[in-house]
Design a protein that fits this description.
7-stranded mixed β-sheet; 7 strands; Spore Coat Polysaccharide Biosynthesis Protein SpsA, Chain A; single chain; about 220 residues; 9 helices; about 15% strand; alpha/beta
Length: about 220
């Protein structure tokens, strides 16, 4: 029987900030990928980190913290998602990336509910014109949507970045019913994702401010 899974894609081979997912983040002793994993667990019991085959640094780090992971294609990330979904019988599939430590847990929960209540096949915070902040990157899709995407998306760019085909083409309009989460206030100018050491420091400061202010609950904002 299928059930929802959150899949977090992560690697240590980032060109701009190598090893960023292993950097300290959040409470003392936690790493960036560990923090993201714990946030995901607030919304879903089944969370798995998807890593490239051969990324031994990341595999060792996850093993040390007893974080479940799946090793898949080193460059074809869409294939990695497809293979993981097949392995775990996941449906729907929730996609989070390893550079977004401050995504909003209530928004993730809301989008999970939208898949059931609105009978849609793809839910996202990213459809243009985007209104969510950079770092609140959440996508949820049914198994059928992922399977269709795996068949239609053929370019190396689309395979590496997983969902651009859906946003770029009319494919989703004809075949996939969609739901876009858009906050009332436009937050698109705010950057809370991690691409550089400076981003990491800024996100850590923002997390500490949220903790101090207890805005909406320290772990769920």
């Amino acid at each position: 029987m299928s059930r929802p899974y959150i899949f977090i894609q992560a690697r240590t081979g980032s060109t701009r900030f190598p090893g960023k997912v292993l950097q300290p983040f959040g409470p003392p002793g936690e790493s960036l990928i560990g923090h993201i994993f714990q946030r995901c667990r607030l919304a879903c019991d089944d969370v798995v980190v998807l890593i490239p085959t051969g990324d031994n640094r990341l595999a060792d780090h996850l093993n040390d913290r007893h974080i479940p992971y799946f090793e898949g294609h080193p460059t074809d990330v869409l294939q990695r998602y497809y293979d993981a979904a097949m392995t775990y019988n996941a449906d729907p599939i929730l996609r989070i990336t390893g550079d977004c430590p401050l995504f909003e847990v209530p928004v993730l929960e809301h989008m999970m509910a939208s898949m059931k209540n609105r009978l849609v096949a793809f839910a996202t915070t990213l459809y243009p014109p985007r209104r969510s902040y950079d770092g609140n990157d959440i996508e949820v899709m049914t198994w059928a949507t992922l399977a269709l995407l795996n068949s239609y998306a053929v370019t190396p760019y689309d395979r590496e970045h997983v969902t651009p085909y859906l946003y770029r083409s009319a494919f989703d309009r004809r075949v996939v019913t969609t739901y876009t989460y858009a906050p009332i206030i436009d937050q698109s100018a705010i950057k809370l994702s991690v691409d550089t050491p400076e981003d990491l420091a800024r996100c850590q400061k923002q997390w500490e401010e949220w903790q101090a202010n207890m805005t909406g609950g320290p772990s769920r904002v």
